[in-house]
TrEMBL record:
<dbReference type="Pfam" id="PF00106">
    <property type="entry name" value="adh_short"/>
</dbReference>
<keyword id="KW-0560">Oxidoreductase</keyword>
<dbReference type="InterPro" id="IPR020904">
    <property type="entry name" value="Sc_DH/Rdtase_CS"/>
</dbReference>
<dbReference type="InterPro" id="IPR002347">
    <property type="entry name" value="SDR_fam"/>
</dbReference>
<dbReference type="InterPro" id="IPR036291">
    <property type="entry name" value="NAD(P)-bd_dom_sf"/>
</dbReference>
<dbReference type="GO" id="GO:0016491">
    <property type="term" value="F:oxidoreductase activity"/>
</dbReference>
<comment type="similarity">
    <text>Belongs to the short-chain dehydrogenases/reductases (SDR) family.</text>
</comment>
<dbReference type="InterPro" id="IPR052625">
    <property type="entry name" value="Chl_b_Red"/>
</dbReference>
<protein>
    <submittedName>
        <fullName>SDR family NAD(P)-dependent oxidoreductase</fullName>
        <ecNumber>1.-.-.-</ecNumber>
    </submittedName>
</protein>
Length: 252
């Protein structure tokens, strides 16, 4: 893809989503975002000068409203990014409260299903477009004790994206964005102080701030929007290199 694009980002009022919106606006693209916190939505709209809606991705009608507003303001949607996601307290499955488990499944998986369904149908009607889904811990099948529900949703999103790439309407493509470890509140959510201290040693080597990850990802989510695309920031080779250099490199 080349030229300015109309791009929708769910969960685009905080963390990596907001960072992506900032980077894409700086590149000259027309961005629309949503979030669930009215104050954050208003702040994003004021800062970025973009359409911002209060929308819960677990409600398909509200996701449709997001699509409709982006089309009303920008004429079409070229790229849709299913970024909205939440985590849960770091607890074994049988100790995780039912409501908390349900919320994670609904936002991370059902929310992505809703975004894919609305975007695919709308893009079919306009003659094409690209859908990106966001990977996370668990996408590669690796298990981490205490994060079973979160990891299961991300594993499911990876499968869902592969299926969508095969069954999407003509002209509609789908792919995966894998940002690696990003320093946001999602990364450390649910950790005790002791767990956060232990994990901090790994984060210091592998995690990058939003200000580093977002511009890198923003450029590629536009330039690599093709069917079955898989954009990975933190590859196995990069991980090995960072650990090898860790004793000699001081990271912020």
């Amino acid at each position: 893809m080349s030229g300015a694009r109309s791009i929708v980002i769910t969960g685009g009022t905080r963390g990596l989503g907001l960072g992506l919106a900032r980077s894409l606006v700086a590149l000259g693209h027309r961005v629309t975002v949503c979030g669930t916190d009215p104050d954050r939505v208003a702040a994003a709209e004021a800062e970025l000068g973009v359409p911002a809606l209060v929308a819960d991705v677990t409600d398909r009608a509200r996701v449709q409203d997001l699509w409709d507003e982006a089309v009303r303001r920008h004429g079409r949607v070229d790229i849709w990014v299913n970024n909205a996601g939440i985590s849960h307290h770091r607890l074994p499955l049988w100790r995780l409260p039912a409501g908390e488990a349900r919320a994670v499944v609904e936002v991370n998986l059902l929310g992505t299903v809703n975004g894919c369904a609305v975007a695919a149908a709308g893009m079919a009607g306009q003659g094409g477009g690209h859908i990106w889904n966001m990977e996370g811990l668990g996408s590669d099948g690796r298990t981490v004790p205490g994060l079973g529900v979160y990891g299961a949703t991300k594993r499911a999103v990876t499968y869902l994206t592969g299926a969508l790439a095969k069954e999407a309407p003509d002209g509609v493509t789908a792919g995966l964005l894998s940002p690696g470890m990003v320093v946001t509140d999602l990364l450390t959510y649910g950790y005790s102080e002791a767990e956060r201290e232990r994990a901090g040693r790994i984060f210091a080597i592998l995690a990058d701030p939003v200000e580093v990850v977002a511009p890198w990802l923003a450029e590629r989510l536009v330039s690599r929007a093709r069917n079955g695309a898989h954009v990975r920031r933190l590859t196995a080779a990069k991980i090995a290199y960072r650990f090898a250099k860790a004793p000699f490199v001081r990271r912020p």
